[in-house]
């Protein structure tokens, strides 16, 4: 363990986190930070758009895919897709989703429609051209991911997937734990920094 992490490790130990778990958490964090930096560039998505010759940026692609609603990401949605549905799927502001949907309408990739459940509601429908774009981009993505995973033994993938899914929920719990379970510990850290309480 790096010398600069020793003080934190001691502090965490006093808070009930064993040294071995801290070492493991540091290793996981290093992998995640490297992954985050690579993913934030969205190189695979950019490459797919470029290679397919599409005049589309990544935020619009995200909205188009959310409107198309792949079952592996969003389950098998039975409800109609509205701008608010897209905003919720992507965890973005509804006004941003609305603007991006309008731009996709201009490009002919989605269209507005009338709800069959409530004629007062406007729904968003992916056009055949939009569906073709989503299918092409996803095919490139899974061509590359599939090529990577085919080198793994099936047992490793079967072990990895539920662990990855389980691990992915930690960030959903992090805020609540930080404000409840570890509030006294975080207060002690704040006091060390001499930052006034909010």
UniProtKB/TrEMBL annotation:
Which protein are we looking at? Answer: MarR family transcriptional regulator
Looking up SUPFAM superfamilies in the UniProt record yields:
Winged helix' DNA-binding domain
What GO molecular functions are on record for this protein? DNA-binding transcription factor activity
Q: Pfam families from the xrefs?
A: MarR_2
Instruction: Return the SMART domains for the record.
Output: HTH_MARR
User: From which domain of life does this come?
Assistant: Bacteria
> What Gene3D superfamilies does the record tag this protein with?
Winged helix-like DNA-binding domain superfamily/Winged helix DNA-binding domain
Q: Where is the HTH marR-type domain?
A: 18-169
From which organism does this entry originate? Pseudooceanicola albus
* One GO term of the biological process aspect: response to stress
């Amino acid at each position: 363990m790096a010398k600069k992490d020793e003080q934190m490790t001691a502090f965490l130990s006093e808070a009930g986190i064993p040294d071995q778990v801290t070492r493991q958490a540091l290793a996981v964090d290093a992998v995640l930070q490297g992954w985050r930096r690579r993913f934030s560039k969205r190189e695979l998505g950019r490459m797919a758009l470029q290679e397919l010759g599409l005049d589309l940026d990544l935020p619009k692609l995200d909205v188009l895919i959310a409107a198309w609603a792949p079952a592996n990401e969003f389950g098998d949605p039975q409800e109609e897709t509205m701008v608010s549905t897209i905003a919720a799927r992507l965890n973005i502001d509804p006004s941003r989703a609305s603007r991006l949907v309008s731009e996709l309408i201009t490009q002919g990739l989605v269209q507005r429609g009338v709800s069959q459940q409530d004629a007062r509601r406007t729904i968003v429908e992916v056009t055949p051209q939009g569906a073709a774009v989503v299918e092409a981009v996803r095919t490139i993505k899974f061509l590359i991911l599939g090529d990577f995973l085919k080198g793994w033994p099936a047992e490793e993938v079967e072990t990895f997937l539920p662990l990855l899914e389980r691990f992915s929920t930690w960030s959903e719990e992090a805020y609540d734990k930080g404000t409840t379970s570890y509030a006294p510990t975080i207060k002690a850290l704040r006091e060390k920094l001499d930052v006034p309480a909010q």
